[in-house]
Design goal:
The protein has 209 residues and is mainly β. The protein is built from three helices and nine strands, in the order ααβββββββαββ. The protein has one domain: Beta Barrel (Sortase, Chain: A). The chain is globular. It holds the Pfam family Sortase.
Length: 209
Amino acid sequence: MIPRPGRALATAVLAVLLAGCGGGQGDGDTAPGRPAATKTTAAPPAQAPAKSVRPLARSVPVGLRIPAIGVDTPVMGLGLAADGTVQVPPVTDDDRAGWYRHSPTPGQVGPSVLLGHVTVGRYGDGVFRNLARLHRGERIEARLENGTAAEFTVTAVRTVAKADFPTEDVYGDVAGPELRLITCGGPRDGEEYRDNVIVFAELSAAKGV
C-alpha cells in the first residue's frame, strides 16, 4: 500500500507549498500570508459519472492535461526535503506540475496529490495559474508511465486560507480513486498569496487499459 501522511506529517509536508507557492530562490512568494476567510468557488452543478470505474494499477504519472484551462504539462516526482517538508517543482521558465510520491498514483484508491505554482517569479505565470477557474464537471487527464491514462471529473474547487488548510479533506481516506491539485491563490499580502486553491476530482474513465 502507498503510504499516506498522517495529520502531523501532512501538515509538515505541505508547509513549503503553503508558504512558498510560486516562489523560492528569492523570486516569488516566500513569506507566510495572513489568514483569510475560507470559501468555496461558485460552480455549475455537474452530473455524477454514469458508472463507477475500477481502480487502476500503480503507475507513476508522467503528464497532466486540463483542457478547460489549457494545461498540458509533464509531471515530475516530489518527495520530502531534509527538513521534512515536501519538495516543490523548481522555479524555472519550463515550469511543470509535481506529484507527491507518498500519495497514491492517479487511479489508485485514495487521494493522489499534485502540486504546481501559480507564479514562478521572474519567469511569469506558473503551470497552475488558472486552476481556480475550473468548474465541477470539467475533466482532468493524468498520463501514466505504463501508457494508460486516468481521466478524472472535477467535483469541487475550493479556495481556503493557508492557516485553515483542510488536511483531512486532502489526505483523508476515501472509498475510490481521487485527485487533488493544489496551488496558491486569493489576494496577495505583499508578495505572498494569502490562500490556497484546491481542486478535488474523482476517477471517471480509464484509457488504454
